[in-house]
Amino acid sequence: MQNNVLSSLKEHENKLLTIWSQLLLENGSTDGITEEEESKEFTSLLLDALRISNGNNQESEEFEKVHDLLIGISSSRAKRGFSPRENAQYLISFKEAASQILSELERDPVKLYDANLILGSVIDNMTIMTFEAYMKGREDVISRQIDEISEISTPVIRVWDGVVALPIIGTLDSSRTQVVMENLLQQIVDTGSSIAILDISGVPAVDSLVAQHLIKTVSATRLMGAECIISGIRPEIAQTVVHLGIDLTGIITKASLASALQTAFDMLQLTVVKRK
Amino acid sequence: MAIIRSRLMTTTTNNKEEILIIKEQDVVPLRNRVRDYGVKVGMSILNQTKLITATSELVRNLLKYGGGGKVVIESVSNGRDNGVRVTFIDNGPGIPDITLAMKDGYSTGKSLGLGLPGTKRLVNEFDIKTELGNGTTVTITKWKNG
Amino acid sequence: MERIPILKMGDFLLVTIQVDLYDQLAENLESDLINTINKYSSKGVLIDISAVSIIDSFMGRILGNIAVMSKIMDAQTVVVGMQPAVAITLVELGLSLNGVISALNVEKGMDLLRAKMYNGDNQEQTYDDDNE
After folding, report:
1. C91–chain A Cβ distance below 8 A for any pair
2. Whole-angstrom Cα distance, residue C98 to residue C91?
3. Regarding predicted confidence, which is higher, A35 or A7?
4. What's the rounded Cα separation, in Å, for the pair A225 and C103?
5. Beta carbons of C61 and B115 less than 8 Å apart
6. Which residue of A has its CA nearest to C60?
7. Which residues neighbour C122 within 8 Å (Cβ) at sequence distance 6 or greater?
8. CATH 1.10.3380.10 is the classification of domain A157-267
9. Proportion of chain A above pLDDT 70, given as a percent
10. What's the CA gap between B136 and B128, in Å, rounded?
């Protein structure tokens, strides 16, 4: 199928760009302008591809180039926090702009219809592609954040010979508990420490699930032959624990890290004295 | 706590083997094979240990209640993660009340009665099919990052 | 039949488990150990499991049995060197090995046994403490 109108779009590239950025502005996406370079390149490549293939072959080398560019634009937009709506609007506005120009160029309704049909299929195909790229971009962001969080979340500190401490910041879920337990127990083995202090000052709330995770960590530490002290019990935590009927009686709990350390000293039969 | 997970994800099998279990001495080689599979997909020591412990629990059931059977080990992939799947198939009497058997603290044998629910906590996916008189099939999957 | 060697060191018995356990082997260890305690009137048992890569509910139960049985025979059992992955797995499985006293390594285990022996008077109390 030959469609000369689509090919001739290339001659009206600048006009298309103007209409497109206007449409983007009208739809509330101010970024039509800031992305000018990208948009220019995209328009130029797409119109080239349409001219050469006449819209018949979407797998051609020229279309490959357009798709590659588009995927790049889309995933970078995802990473910069663009909304899905803005992302979709980008291509939909392009289609609108191109349709406007087509209807000015072509007077024959049948030919115009054909041209719009091809244009529609090309852009729809690209919309799907951008969405996939957008989602992938978001997923990359999420998985990178997960890695970062698990990296920063569990530092084990050696506070004294034979005493290690692990401050927990943030919520304790089951996968985090695994990391905490693994790091803590490994440190206990590596340093030969017989006392571990788990400080929960930075844990926003303790519900029965969090308590269960804490109890598990204490149990695992004891199985290894070390004792585990939980410190940083704020008044509101003590209240919720009792209200929820959570049994922490088998566990040594202290209000502050300082008093936990004092308890550790007692257990190791150490005394800290002031020099005279 | 116990939520029966039945994820309908498309998984592909990369490698597979079948081991016959008829006596207690078959257990140690089986555990070692499962470990090999875990090492091959790059599982952490902790996840390997959980998988092998789950295997050990289930193979005991297979011997004790099913009178032996076969175990299939597969390395699987769901596109996002790799893992190991182990299936225990016996032709024993089956489990009369599966809901009861999945409860913590229940046991008909002389173990501690932590078999099934405890095992389930060690793996990512746990599936059990049993029919009275026709045996039991248990499938567990442990993902590398699970 | 394969057996795990039990070494006598003065008042103590030392068991180092170097192979992966299967049920029969663990059961043999239980009865051998109790018989050996009886034979030498041992006061303490040290079981080194640092080379054991998995402990499931059955083996956990055997360890618990050994601790309680030897206690009845007036010997204290200490399990040493449990791998972190093994400890976490046991907890997930729901086994806390009540009654079993652990220590990080053989040296600390020996210290613990000696301390328990020479504090004969409050031994009962210490045991209760460790048992929660």
Report:
1. yes
2. 12
3. A7
4. 4
5. no
6. A223
7. none
8. no
9. 93
10. 7
Q: What is the dihedral of CA B130, B131, B134, B140, to 10 degrees?
A: -10
0.80 surpassed by pTM: no
The radius of gyration of chain C's CA atoms, rounded to the nearest angstrom, is 14
Domain-wise residue ranges, chain B: 10-143
Q: How confident is the model at residue A42 (pLDDT cuts 50, 70, 90)?
A: confident
Using CB atoms, pick whichever of C23, C57, C89 lies closest to residue B50. C89
User: Which DSSP helix (H) or strand (E) runs through A68?
Assistant: helix A61-79
Buried b (16+ CB within 10 A) or exposed e, A93-119: bbbbbbbebbeebbeeeebbebbbebb
Given CB atoms, is C46 within the 8 Å cutoff of chain A? no
User: Closest to B49 (Cβ–Cβ): which among C22, C85, C94?
Assistant: C85
CA distance A31 to A24: 8
Would you say the C-alpha torsion B56, B58, B62, B64 has a positive or negative sign? positive
Contact between A225 and C91 using a beta-carbon 8 Å cutoff: no
**Looking at this predicted complex, what is its ipTM?**
0.84
Q: Give the pairing of strands A157-160 and A163-169.
A: antiparallel
Determine the pLDDT at residue B4.
41
Chain B residue numbers with beta carbons less than 8 Å from the beta carbon of C23 are 24, 27, 60
On whether any CB of chain C is under 8 Å from the CB of B1, the answer is no
| Domain span including residue C19 | 6-119
Q: What's the structural domain count of chain C?
A: 1
> 3-class SS at B67?
coil
Q: What CATH code would you report for B10-143?
A: 3.30.565.10
Domain presence at residue C128: no
What average pLDDT does this structure show over A226-255?
Answer: 90
Is residue C125 one of the residues assigned to a domain? no
Give CATH for domain A4-150: 1.10.490
Residue of C nearest to B117 (CA): C93
What are the domain boundaries of chain A? 4-150, 157-267
- Of C65, C63, C59, the closest CA to residue C20 belongs to C59
Residue C1 lies in a domain: no
